[in-house]
Amino acid sequence: MVKVKICGLMNREAILTAVDAGTDFIGFVFAQSKRQVTKEKAAELAKYIPPNVKKVGVFVNEKLEVIQDIAREVGLDYIQLHGDESPAFCKEIGLPVIKAFHVASKEDLDNVASYECDYYLLDSPAGKYRGGNGEKFDWSITKEQDFLNKKILLAGGLHAENVEEAIQEVNPTGVDVSSGVETDSVKDLDKIRAFILAAKKGERNGII
After folding, report:
1. Could you tell me which PANTHER family the record lists for this protein (predicted)?
2. pLDDT mean over 98-115
């Protein structure tokens, strides 16, 4: 079953919409970003997320103690690392880890195997911030790799109109979206619903 992660949520309405539409993960961005939230804000918003939807905290080259403090206060289920964190650092977190890899060429995927994580997020090359750039990478690169038995989350340039194609081409465990469900840099409730519906439809089409 293809999982869906809606990232960069900053208000109650967007969270309730994503939950109601069937998202599997909700991401809070704690790294520098236009979608950044404070620990206190995330803890308040987390109250609207039921136990079956997993809370993810997104960090970039953050100190271990800061990550663990925020995870405790917010009740995070997963830690997503979007920086230059080492395999050893990932093991120190003490919570399930999603490690992001920025993909510009097939060589960028060579070090995926050195990480032991719960999910491996393949994203487009980093822009001003690590992630949320709204650009896709060449999905065909993934076909030359033998890591697809790992839990792959696909990100980068996804939206309701192309997520079905992405699922069928890459066959990921899940898909991750942020800017693809925004209008004028603000989460769009209709786009959130449409994305989740399309992703779940792509999953069914893939099975058929």
Report:
1. N-(5'-PHOSPHORIBOSYL)ANTHRANILATE ISOMERASE
2. 86
Clarify whether 108 is annotated catalytic. no
Q: Which residues contact 174 (CB under 8 A, 6 or more apart)?
A: 2, 3, 4, 5, 24, 25, 119, 151, 152, 153, 154
- Check if 123 is active-site: yes
Q: What number is the average pLDDT over the span 129-142? A: 67
The pTM of the whole model exceeds 0.85 = yes
Q: Identify the CA nearest to 140 among candidates 129, 151, 128, 154.
A: 154
| List 7, 24, 117, 176, catalytic entry | 7
CATH of 3-207, one of 3.20.20.70, 3.40.720.10, 3.40.50.300, 2.60.40.60: 3.20.20.70
Is the model more confident about 148 or about 192?
192
The catalytically annotated residue of 24, 117, 123, 176 is 123
Q: Where are the domains of the chain?
A: 3-207
Q: What are 8-37's pLDDT values in tens digits?
A: 999 999 999 999 999 999 999 999 999 999
Closest to 55 (Cα-Cα) out of 21, 5, 118: 5
Which amino acid is residue 188, in one-letter code? D
